[in-house]
Amino acid sequence: MTSPASFPPGAADRVAMLIVAAGKGLRAGGGLPKQYRKIGGTPVLRRTIEAALACERVSCVVVLIGEDDGTHYADCIAGLADPRLRPPATGGDTRQQTVLNGLRALDDFAPDIVLVHDGARPFVSAKVIAASIDAIVTGHRAAIAAIPVSDTLKRADGESGAILGTVERSGLYAAQTPQAFRYSDILAAHERAASEGLASFTDDAAVAEWAGHTVVLTPGETGNIKITTAEDLRRLDSESATREQRMDMETRVATAYDVHAFEAGSGVILGGIPIPHDRALKGHSDADVVLHALTDAVLATICDGDIGHHFPPSDPQWRGAPSDQFLAYAVDRLRQRGGRISHLDVTIVCERPKIGPHRETMRARIAEICGTPLHRVSVKATTSERLGFTGREEGIAALATATVRLPAEDDELPAQGARA
Ligand code: CTP
Ligand code: MG
Q1: Ranges in the chain annotated CATH 3.30.1330.50
Q2: The whole model's pTM is what?
Q3: Is pLDDT above 50 for 386?
Q4: Which of 216, 275, 373, 396 could connect to 79 by a Cys-Cys bridge, CB 3.0–4.6 Å?
């Protein structure tokens, strides 16, 4: 069985990724900085952060944000629960100052390798990130992702526009990010540049070169573009809409039901949070009936069995286990199929404990476990008017509904014989 999504695999080297997103995005026009504008309904910066987290070898991500952008940032990462995403740090007036602040913010994490990546490059692939890491792991001091220049290059007079010559294209590369370094090297280089009052380096590779390190190129990708203008945003937004249409997404809805009986005790776990009560719920795991129903509903959207199939009660490792890992695992299975949660809804049936006072905490916890925004999670409760087992307070029942968007798969045609 694959382990739940929330547990990143260990790596020999601790790799930190700084995402620099403290710019004002002036070339993309005034108003909301470009990194907080949306492509296909998702903010650019959220896409960048998710792309960084999609590379399992990245062990921590720190985003550098503008002084006044705290609220934009909080909205942008709502529901992102990956523990590798650390609190943001504040950038500076120049990209160079922003990176230095980021390197200093990594002090307590003390990574072996640090990658610096533009927040405005949301389409970086895990492959490009891994290639940067590999360059350092294999002994290089500094590396930058780059692609060969494919356009013919002309040198021209800026005023008259007259061409002065053609620039030999071979051996020319367009620099991208991530740029990768040994943490101690790049921190020392940046500190020294700052202390010498040198503030006009355009990227970190230039700082490393100045400090005397050889910088090598690693393969970038044409898709790893930096969003610069409002036109870039418009074009990518409309392309993303067609991508989604082309992928032919479908909506699926699944329901699930679970019950746990009461036993002696002094509290229950419901929706991932502890609630004081004069009884406890009986079960092999922590008996969180709410998360169990949600787990089954999510698994059902991809026809992927049920919780008992993936986490057999006969297996001692799940004894007393917190159920958040079951739900995170189900959501990971959904994401692996390219799916995402549109909505989760759960109804808790019990006379007591009263759910109302805990409802918002429960919603927030479920959203966090699923890495989905709060507005996509609904929790409600009802009594059964003292009827039946819930009415007699013998146990608690939960009903869950999961609605997801999923790339449509071609329907298989029925076999000839079955058609008649
Ligand atoms: N950046 C930063 N701190 C700065 C300047 C830039 O963190 N003081 C970041 C940007 O947020 C961006 C990346 O560096 O992710 C690349 O910079 P650029 O594309 O130039 O972004 P902006 O400076 O925001 O845009 P503009 O130059 O158009 O104002
Ligand atoms: Mg700039």
Answers
A1: 249-407
A2: 0.66
A3: yes
A4: 373
